[in-house]
């Protein structure tokens, strides 16, 4: 700590010493001899005269400062920017209130006066005045030289100040003409001796004005040469003796009066030497008596006056400074603001302390707000925390976070998101239109808003509305009320804007995080759920299945039911996608209701659904499948129609049919196809009938190699004409002896060929071998047709007919060489397309047979359109005709129907004489079966006398 001032270091002691030192010259003057009295009187006269001119100069400086403030205030008035009566009236009223101005006016940047406190009859242009040009150049307060006004006709000095528009561009110049009348008044107050004159001299040395001791304006004339020389050598001021034109010697004191654009103007007071010395002599006697009195009063006044007017105020400033240094930002001097130095110092100190307090308050708000932003996880909690921080930490009266909301009535209302403070339950004192139109980045500050505003909360004297924007989007506003009208100065407002910016960033960040979470949830839901039905999708099903199969060490039992809606595509194409979607939703709802609790229903793709049961066995899965079938068999009301769909269900069991999702799903899908082939509503996966199993795929590969290598055999089974009991043809049957598996059943590898597409090269190989054998037999004298089977794949093959024509040409074949047997189901897959193909084949002389007649869905109307030579009754009916009357009736009626259509009949599966005899009695044309001969290779058949017999 610093020690207090010593006795002689105190301000009071120094003031007393200053008074004493000020009196020493006077005391010294009394000691001078009488010889020096005149010189002292002259010096005193010079001093008084010099003080007078300096007083005039100080008065001029005061008028200059006042003029600067007046013009700056005028330049900001909107009325001054538009010419007219309102502007003239305003300046006229100001001119009457400030008589020391000869005129107040405003001019355009070109110098044309458009507004004046005094009327003028003709246009006036001030563009050539020095003050006007200087104002345009510097765009700041500028002064001209003393001159006679063009409007007033009076000597005056002009001052200019720029008028700026709202964009900061120069719009004009406001100027004032300062009257010199005050100089005359000052001269009268000075009570100059008779014969004294006051001169005002311009920078060029010319006399602007000459005033007598009685205040009258005198002829200006020119200053004497000695005065001119003094002005030229000592520009800071001084005294000089001058012999005037009237022969009077005067003591002239001069001082700089005004610094203008063209140079320095001076004021000079000349007092006749005789009068100056007379006054000095009288003053000498008078002052001798007053010296002691003045000295005593001066010391007394210095002692007590310093306490009242200086020391007490200095101590108050010192105490406030000490408190502020210790961190008390509320410390104030408590002194009244005044124009004196201490008053200005106290005002500056209080302003500084207030600014520090406001900035510190805003800094605390910003810092606490940043901490809240770091911890924030919820938007509403963040807004509430910021409002609370503004009030509790920042010390502001109230705070709101709100935005402008558009109502249903097409109006704008203020919606409050968060608030804090004594008036938190009331709406913020800002209307919705103002809030909605708040410019981005431009805060709104209202000072002294509590005066006459009933909607303002109690204790609120200033209002700041800070926009909240993030990524170019308006989020709302942070509204803060303060108890002090000057609370929102530039520095505090800048920090609060930063707080609002951080808050807007925090809101945007929280909303972005929320949107990301929602997007992630949506993505996750879309990744694991079907968007149409809301059911889990294939990914969710596989995940659930993987979890279920992983229980109990991977030995958990379960079942997957694959549900296929057979007629969905037909309905979807007939009624449109919208109705199809409605059907899928309804089917999903029924499916979910039909399964037991704990089961998972998923939509895989299109019209396929899956049901996961765990735990479950074959019986449980079959029972659930039956329930699903019954639920989906009920009609669906759709688009005003009552529609039915066929559901086919495939069942795969875990772990028997697979212990991982992909394998189990494939087997369930295979089970669907197995159910469709067997025409059952549902089927449990049968590995032996799996056309896509690994063993089947390997067998298909071996079959392809066998076809390419010709490693197949062609067997022939005889056909007997029952009327003549003679050979009428053979059927070529392909056989395959696998190098590892041995003889493979035709049912197995032919169906595999159809499923894999190998049926096309297989059929071509059989045709080529059969035609080659037919050619060999014909060379031996046996001319019988060889029958070859065609599948649906062959009928759809556009290259079939060209290939057969090529083979016919190669072997020289013709009519009667080849018969083609086609199952009725293959033919009915595309009846219209089959007609053209079969007619072309018939034109080549090829006999056409419908194989397995009675087991398919052929239409008799199509039989009449096709060039069919014969139908083959399926062996299942022939072999059962003796024991089953219905089978016998089918055989008998088929023979009669075919003959009515002029079509021959071939009976397959004849294994004994009784059946052969009965068929002959019923009129059957041809018989084929083990009773007549088993299939055998060509080399095992004997061709003799036009017949073929088996080698013994």
From the structure above, extract its key features:
single chain; about 950 residues; alpha+beta; Beta-Lactamase; Alpha-Beta Plaits; TIM Barrel; eight-stranded mixed beta barrel; six-stranded antiparallel sheet; 27 helices; about 45% helix; rod-shaped
Protein architecture, described:
The chain is of the alpha+beta class and 952 residues long. Among the domains are: 354-519, GAF domain (Beta-Lactamase, 2-Layer Sandwich), CATH 3.30.450; 551-689, 2-Layer Sandwich (Alpha-Beta Plaits); 696-950, Alpha-Beta Barrel (TIM Barrel), CATH 3.20.20.450. The protein has 27 helices and 35 strands. The strands form 7 sheets. An 8-stranded mixed β-barrel has the order 24-25-27-28-29-30-31-32, surrounded by 4 helices. It starts with 10 loop residues before the first helix and ends with a strand. The mean pLDDT is 79.
Give a brief rundown of this model:
With 952 residues, the chain is α+β, with helices and mostly antiparallel strands. It has 27 helices and 35 strands. 46% of the residues lie in helices and 23% in strands.
> In CATH terms, what is the fold-level topology of the domain at 696-950?
TIM Barrel
Q: What's the CATH architecture name of the domain at 696-950? A: Alpha-Beta Barrel
Oligomer: single chain
Number of strands: 35
Shape: rod-shaped
Structural category: alpha+beta
Which percent band covers the strand fraction?
A: 15-25%
Low-confidence stretches: none
Q: How far apart are the first and last residues' alpha carbons, in Å?
A: 141 Å
């Amino acid at each position: 700590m610093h020690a207090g001032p010593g006795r002689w270091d105190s301000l009071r002691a120094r003031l007393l010493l200053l008074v004493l030192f000020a009196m020493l010259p006077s005391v010294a003057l009394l000691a001078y001899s009488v010889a020096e009295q005149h010189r002292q009187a002259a010096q005193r006269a010079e001093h008084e005269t010099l003080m007078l001119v300096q007083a005039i100069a100080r008065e001029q400086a005061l008028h200059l400062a006042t003029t600067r403030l007046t013009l700056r205030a005028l330049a900001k008035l909107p009325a001054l920017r538009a010419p007219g009566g309102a502007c003239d009236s305003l300046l006229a009223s100001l001119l009457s209130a400030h008589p020391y101005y000869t005129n107040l006016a405003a001019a355009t940047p070109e110098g044309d006066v458009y507004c004046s406190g005094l009327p003028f009859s003709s246009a006036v242009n001030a563009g050539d005045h020095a003050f006007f040009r200087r104002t345009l150049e510097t765009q700041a307060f500028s002064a001209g030289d003393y001159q006679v006004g063009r409007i007033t006709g009076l000597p005056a000095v002009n001052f200019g100040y720029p008028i700026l528009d709202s964009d900061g561009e120069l719009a004009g110049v406001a100027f004032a003409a300062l009257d010199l009348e005050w100089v005359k008044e000052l001269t009268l107050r000075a009570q100059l001796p008779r014969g004294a004159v006051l001169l005002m001299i311009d920078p060029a040395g010319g006399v602007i004005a000459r005033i007598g001791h009685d205040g009258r304006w005198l002829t200006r004339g020119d200053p004497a040469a000695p005065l001119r020389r003094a002005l030229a050598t000592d520009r800071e001021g001084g005294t000089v003796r001058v012999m005037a034109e009237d022969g009077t010697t005067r003591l002239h004191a001069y001082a700089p009066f005004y610094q203008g654009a063209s140079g320095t103007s001076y004021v000079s007071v000349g007092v006749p030497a005789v009068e100056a010395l007379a006054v000095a002599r009288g003053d000498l006697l008078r002052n001798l008596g007053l010296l002691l009195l003045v000295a005593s009063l001066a010391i007394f006044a210095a002692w007590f006056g310093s306490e009242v007017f200086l020391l007490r105020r200095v101590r108050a400033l010192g105490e406030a400074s000490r408190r502020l240094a210790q961190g008390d930002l509320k410390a104030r001097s408590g002194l009244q603001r005044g124009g004196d130095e201490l008053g200005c110092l106290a005002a500056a100190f209080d302003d500084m302390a207030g600014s520090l307090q406001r900035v510190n308050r805003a800094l605390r708000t910003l810092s606490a707000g940043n901490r809240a932003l770091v911890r924030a996880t919820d938007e509403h909690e963040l807004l509430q925390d910021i409002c609370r921080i503004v009030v509790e930490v920042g010390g502001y009266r109230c705070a709101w976070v709100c935005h402008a909301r558009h109502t249903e009535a097409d109006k704008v209302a203020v919606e409050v998101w968060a608030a804090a403070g004594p008036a938190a339950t009331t709406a913020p004192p800002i209307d919705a239109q103002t809030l909605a139109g708040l410019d981005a980045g431009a805060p709104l500050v209202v000072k002294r808003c509590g005066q006459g505003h009933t909607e303002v909360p109690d204790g609120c004297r200033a209002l700041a509305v800070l926009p909240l924007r993030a990524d170019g989007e308006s989020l709302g506003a942070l509204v803060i009320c303060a108890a002090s009208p000057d609370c929102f100065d530039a520095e505090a407002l800048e920090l609060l804007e930063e707080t609002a910016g951080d808050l807007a960033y925090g809101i945007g960040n929280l909303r972005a995080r929320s949107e990301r979470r929602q997007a992630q949830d949506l993505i996750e839901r879309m990744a694991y759920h079907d968007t149409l039905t809301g059911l889990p999708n294939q990914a969710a099903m596989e995940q659930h299945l993987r979890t279920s199969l992983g229980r109990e060490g991977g030995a958990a039992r379960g079942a997957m039911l694959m549900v296929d809606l057979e007629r969905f595509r037909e309905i979807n194409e007939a009624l449109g996608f919208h109705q199809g979607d409605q059907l899928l939703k309804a089917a999903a709802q029924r499916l979910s209701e039909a399964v037991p609790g704990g089961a998972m229903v998923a939509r895989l793709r299109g019209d396929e659904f899956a049901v996961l049961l765990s735990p479950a066995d074959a019986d449980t899965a079959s029972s659930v499948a039956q329930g699903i079938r019954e639920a989906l068999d009920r009609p669906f009301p759709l688009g005003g129609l009552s529609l039915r769909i066929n559901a086919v269900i495939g069942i795969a069991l875990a772990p028997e049919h697979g212990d991982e999702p992909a394998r189990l799903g494939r087997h369930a899908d295979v089970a669907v196809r197995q159910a469709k082939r067997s025409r059952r509503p549902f089927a449990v996966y049968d590995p032996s009938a799996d056309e896509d199993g690994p063993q089947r795929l390997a067998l298909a590969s071996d079959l392809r190699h066998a076809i390419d290598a010709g490693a197949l055999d062609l067997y022939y089974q005889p056909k007997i004409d029952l009327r003549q009991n003679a050979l009428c043809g053979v059927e070529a049957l392909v056989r395959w002896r696998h190098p590892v598996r041995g003889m493979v059943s035709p049912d197995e590898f032919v169906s595999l060929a159809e499923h894999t597409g190998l049926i096309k090269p297989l059929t071509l190989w059989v045709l080529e071998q059969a035609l080659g054998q037919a050619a060999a037999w014909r060379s031996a004298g046996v001319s019988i047709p060889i029958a070859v089977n065609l599948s649906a794949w062959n009928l759809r093959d556009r290259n079939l007919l060209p290939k057969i024509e090529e083979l016919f040409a190669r072997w020289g074949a013709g009519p009667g060489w080849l018969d083609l047997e086609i199952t009725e189901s293959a033919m009915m897959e595309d009846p219209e397309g089959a007609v053209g193909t079969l007619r072309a084949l018939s034109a080549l002389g090829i006999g056409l047979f419908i194989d397995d007649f009675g087991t398919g869905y052929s239409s008799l109307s199509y039989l009449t359109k096709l060039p069919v030579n014969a139908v083959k009754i399926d062996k299942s009916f022939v072999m059962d005709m003796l024991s089953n009357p219905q089978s016998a009736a089918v055989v008998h009626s088929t023979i009669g129907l075919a003959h009515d259509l002029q079509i021959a009949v071939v009976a397959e599966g004849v294994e004994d004489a009784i059946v052969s005899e009965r068929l002959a009695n019923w009129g059957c044309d041809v018989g084929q079966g083990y009773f007549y001969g088993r299939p055998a290779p060509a080399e095992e058949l004997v061709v003799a006398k036009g017949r073929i017999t088996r080698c013994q």
